[in-house]
Recover the amino acids of this structure.
């Protein structure tokens, strides 16, 4: 009898792989989150969220259906269930196994007890697997630099023209995404990263629609990476290319992810720790920035600093509110405390 039970567990155990053989991530998200549109931002189900900052999307890297909460992070459909019910990963598997009647064999000793009264409706299994969105090309038509560009980049942030060139920032008159043509705002810039790989930035847009366009993927190297020296003293991990450029004006090296879906990896850490004496996370001083700072420092042997709560949230905002020398003094004081 004991041998028979062992054989059942061995051939049909409750594992992530076996769950996904029977039910798709799409069906899991649909059952525990509700109706959704892939790639569209909505309000987070985990917290009060006045500005939509939660989405379910297809990873361009591996085609998996994942979720992301801009404040709390993201993960797989099973991680979504884990976070929703405040349980362990294995307990989330148990919930899915029970609700979808998958009949996978559970290791109760490893799992521990979990009693959650939740969804009453019978789940629907479609095993729908969405395809990744096509990777659109972006083409640009640039123009000469004008006085309005100087007023934006230099008067506000003290970023010099040669720094903009260093980081491949160009003013645009129009751009194309695939075959669709876009005319630009008076201020529109293309950030160039690789052949056909751009971010389009229109700072005068007051909402997210049209302010940013990009065909960045998770394989695109981090902003500022290609401009790093081979060796250096301090490397800041910051939030944006604008922050990178104001730090560059002070002589600091910095990199930034393109989106919050790009994570600092062990491979990056192993390479950069051999090139720089100190790696310091310098994210925004809001809740999300502090959360991401502490998460990276717990995972890797790096330091972090944040602007004081009564200061502007990030390096470029300090320059905008005061000037570059004030940012320089602030950074020196923050580093003294480390």
């Amino acid at each position: 009898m004991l041998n028979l039970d062992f054989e059942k567990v061995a051939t049909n155990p409750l594992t992530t792989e076996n769950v996904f053989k029977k039910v798709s991530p799409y069906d899991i998200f649909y059952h525990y989150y509700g109706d959704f549109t892939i790639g569209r931002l909505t309000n987070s189900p985990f917290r009060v969220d006045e500005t939509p900052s939660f989405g379910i999307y297809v990873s361009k890297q591996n085609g998996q259906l994942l979720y992301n909460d801009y404040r709390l992070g993201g993960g797989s459909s099973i991680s979504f269930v884990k976070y929703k019910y405040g349980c362990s990963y294995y307990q989330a598997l148990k919930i899915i196994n029970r609700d979808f009647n998958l009949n996978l064999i559970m290791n109760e000793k490893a799992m521990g007890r979990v009693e959650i009264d939740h969804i009453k409706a019978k789940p629907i299994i479609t095993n729908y697997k969405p395809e990744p969105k096509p990777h659109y090309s972006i083409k640009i038509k640039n123009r000469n630099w004008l006085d309005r560009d100087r007023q934006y980049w230099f008067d506000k942030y003290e970023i010099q023209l040669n720094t903009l060139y260093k980081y491949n920032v160009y003013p645009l008159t129009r751009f194309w995404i695939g075959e669709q043509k876009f005319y630009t705002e008076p201020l529109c810039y293309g950030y160039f990263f690789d052949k056909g790989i751009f971010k389009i930035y229109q700072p005068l847009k007051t909402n997210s629609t049209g302010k940013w366009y990009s065909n960045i993927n998770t394989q695109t190297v981090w902003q500022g990476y290609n401009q790093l020296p081979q060796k250096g003293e301090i490397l800041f991990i910051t939030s944006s290319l604008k922050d990178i450029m104001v730090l560059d004006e002070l002589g600091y090296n910095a990199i930034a992810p393109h989106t919050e879906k790009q994570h600092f990896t062990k491979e990056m850490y192993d390479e950069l720790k051999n090139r720089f004496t100190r790696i310091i996370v310098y994210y925004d001083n809001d809740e999300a920035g502090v959360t991401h700072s502490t998460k990276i420092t717990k995972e890797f042997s790096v330091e972090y600093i944040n602007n004081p709560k009564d200061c502007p949230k990030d390096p470029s905002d300090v320059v905008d509110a005061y000037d570059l020398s004030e940012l320089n003094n602030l950074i020196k004081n923050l580093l003294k405390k480390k």
